[in-house]
Amino acid sequence: MHDPLAGKLSRYVPLSVADRMWLAEALGPARSIAARADIIDEGDDPHAVNVILEGWACRARQLADGRRQIVSLLLPGDSCNPHIFLLDRMDHAISAVTPVVYASIPGAALESLTARSPNLDRAFQREALATAAIQREWTVSLGCRSGIERLAHLFCEMRARLAAVGLATRTTCPLPLTQHDLAHSLGQTSVHINRTLQELRAQGLITLRSRRLTIHDPSRLAELAHFDPAYLHFTVGMDPPPIEP
Amino acid sequence: MHDPLAGKLSRYVPLSVADRMWLAEALGPARSIAARADIIDEGDDPHAVNVILEGWACRARQLADGRRQIVSLLLPGDSCNPHIFLLDRMDHAISAVTPVVYASIPGAALESLTARSPNLDRAFQREALATAAIQREWTVSLGCRSGIERLAHLFCEMRARLAAVGLATRTTCPLPLTQHDLAHSLGQTSVHINRTLQELRAQGLITLRSRRLTIHDPSRLAELAHFDPAYLHFTVGMDPPPIEP
DNA sequence: ACGCCGCACTCAAGTAGATCAGTCTTTCGT
DNA sequence: ACGAAAGACTGATCTACTTGAGTGCGGCGT
Fold first, then answer.
1. CATH number of the domain that B63 lies in?
2. Which residues on A lie below 8 Å from B150 (Cβ)?
3. Tens-digit pLDDT profile for residues B129-139
4. What pLDDT, in 10s, does the model give residues A22-43?
5. Is the separation of the CB atoms in B142 and A139 below 8 Å?
């Protein structure tokens, strides 16, 4: 997709041609950053909203003793928090998982944008609410899903979110996370992630090879994960609903 | 505190007398609800913002097989998501932990309120950002803190958040959660919570009796928990900073 | 085309926390 | 004031996941 930000926002509220134009105007120049580099550091003062255009990034917190937790994954079209510039200090870092292309919307530009278009304002608000819902679902996963369920759930979520910006089909999507990244996202060790992946493969549910995920049986995977896409709150142009046999 | 909503919002942005008056006007009549009852159910269509005036509530998700996770705790002054009415379906329930007194701000009233006072608008925005940060911190706890660290962290957070609305001193605060509630919040069983509590008591860090928590050594507890209050993003009228010896 | 380094993967202990099946204590309704 | 129920607490056993110390493959830079 050429404009993943408009693509994603239009999943929450239909956008007019003018909306898309204003959005494109507000976006600063595209910047590139290497895999594993930081887009913003913990402690920095955020003054703009960064939007991922290509590649994957993550929000991560690091404890004093080195333990690291990935608290969310940012895909093309995701923004690193609208209005984040209202806070004066980042409480987490945003790092590139793959090489990333991103652009910023300066605080003032975002405010004039939402003042001009109530539509866009609503879209940003709903996006923020959906992001919060995703964060809650991660809390649920860590709190009460087992290793295999967590992994299955993450795969279902990634496929669905990527599909929303045209980067996944019903059964396949990119998945450029290393087993270490998965471990840091799911609160487990990479050793255990490795075994759990093999279990999912042995059950014939997925293939994961050269950074690409294939889901052989989406409904069995969703069932295993207790995955219910309602929390993603996409309302416009959903994935076609599954056909009952 | 008589007006916990204004009290809490003024931790993010100083409020004028007019702001406080408008806020009070927008608030609907106070309603009471029994402990353990639901304020909103999963699946309901939210049409107003509920604000807790007295008592504790929680957001909770339930999986199909009965597993339950408390994803956040709502204290006096906390709102159940400004702008939540933009979504059409609750993805989680909000239930009372203790008897709760709450009031609603209808969607339209909130919108005219934020249109009238940019100050209040900012305060709500910052509150939403702080709420998101708290959710991320819970993700971190579940992802990489041990049982005893999680419990210590929760205690530090609750004391700090209650202090922000005048309901806690430096060393003591109400804590009306059962060991079952703690278990559901921290992704563990009540059996294990019980043992962990005893460990905290044995180390002389806390007393927890008849729904009241006393922290005997706040800085040792914070250290154990890796608790850094920065993520709460209170900026106005912080707890006085600790005095270096 | 070669060497290197990150990543996937393996094995053998060790452990935090779960499970189950209780007893004891406090709270609360009538 | 009494009984019932909710909550706190215990002990024995079990297991999902961690730890640490590896091997081998494959993709990347020079």
1. 2.60.120.10
2. none
3. 999 999 999 99
4. 999 999 999 999 999 999 988 8
5. yes
